[in-house]
Write the structure tokens for this entry.
Amino acid sequence: MAKFILGKKLGMTQVFKEDKVIPVTLIESGTNFITQIKTNDKDSYSAVQIGFGERKEKNIKKPQRGHLAKIQNTKYKIPPLRWLREFRLGDTELKSGDEINVSIFAPGDKVNIVAISKGKGFQGVVKRHGFHGGPKSHGQKDRHRAPGSIGSSFPEHVMKGKKMSGRMGGDRVTVKNLEIIEVDSENNLISLKGAVPGRRGTLVMING
């Protein structure tokens, strides 16, 4: 059975297991609600849409408000959800309005993580691409972190994909096969071995 949930990155700490110290990232989750089931017949692909987090209803756009109202009209009471995300999977017994929490995971499970990495703004080639920079010798004033030549006289334009300065970070990053060290159902916490992309408070998609 596929396991998936949305959570929020809290930060990193360490866990002691016997005589080992394990670096972990804490993910705070909570109740996730199934907001839509997509099928091949109706939507041309199979997926489950889930929602997590709360926000003021006035801050939710009208189309999303109407989307969630379809579930509100049933026997379920869904709060104003902050995030909606989809997980691709085949046939499932889940239904709109069902709830998911961290108890579906267990220590030792291997999961894939998707999150948005930290934004670092406009950066030069040394930080962005790991260039070594120019020689630090006489006659090299203010050229230590310069990119150097970016092409020849032909074809007289910069080739597409050339590594140059530019916007860095803020990318969707996937980290595969991270191990779950601990699951705290009372406090809705998941401890993942290693680092997870993003700043504190970043939305994290966990798929097992």
About this structure: The CA atoms of residues 66 and 72 lie 10 Å apart. The longest strand covers residues 4-17.
